[in-house]
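ok trying this again, last paste got cut off
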Amino acid sequence: MLLENKTAVIYGGGGSVGGAVARTFAHEGAKVFLAGRTLATLDKVARQIAAEGGVAETARVDALDERAVDEHAYAVAEKAGGIDVSFNAISHGDVHGTPLVDMPFEDFARPITNAMRAQFLTAKAAARHMVKRGSGVILAITATTARMAIPNVGGTGVTFDAIESLCRQWACELGPKGIRVVWLQTTGIPEAISDTGELFPDYGTGSGEGMTRGELIAWLRRETMLNRLTSLVDVGNAAAFLVSDQASAMTASAANITCGSAPTR
């Protein structure tokens, strides 16, 4: 197993991405600590992991609350003997569908501010414990929006750019202490796109109209070389490899699992 005897903290562990990564980590032998703001969703993932023979614990933690993050990381390190992996998969409060010229600054800045605060606080909390043992991996996730110029996505692209830049800075400071910092680059993930019945923005397709969930997925798929999108299974498998010892030479870099999405538009 790739992660046997490893301890992983997953922020946003009750969400679709966090839950998928948690289940894969547990399947690969890690003990996972699921943190988030909603215990019901965290407990659901923990029960799924337990049903498959894995080990998971849950805790209500707001990743934007520095004291809560620090106290939870300390409790995990005390109980497990340390932290091997920290993965932040919380949502950022993005607003799509409004051109920047019409968007309130608060809506544009919210995902950037939330992401930077959460990524900084969770990475710092984990790093303090990883430094003591001279090893560990901090993992983040971004998407094609970090590299592609797409209209009507508000602050999302800037947010993902900022996450990648922050990861590179963490990596150069923590590398000499034996800690790796890496991230996943994905496409839109179909299983994580909710079907609310409302139309999605046209994202510059030129239609002038919104798209249904099916139309959005079809458009995203056409933007890739493989004519398919990143799945939750892809995310989980890539994450497990990236934080494992098999990827021990990787830091300040991403696992590109965008199915060959074009880097620019």
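PB: full thing came through this time. The chain has a mean pLDDT of 95.
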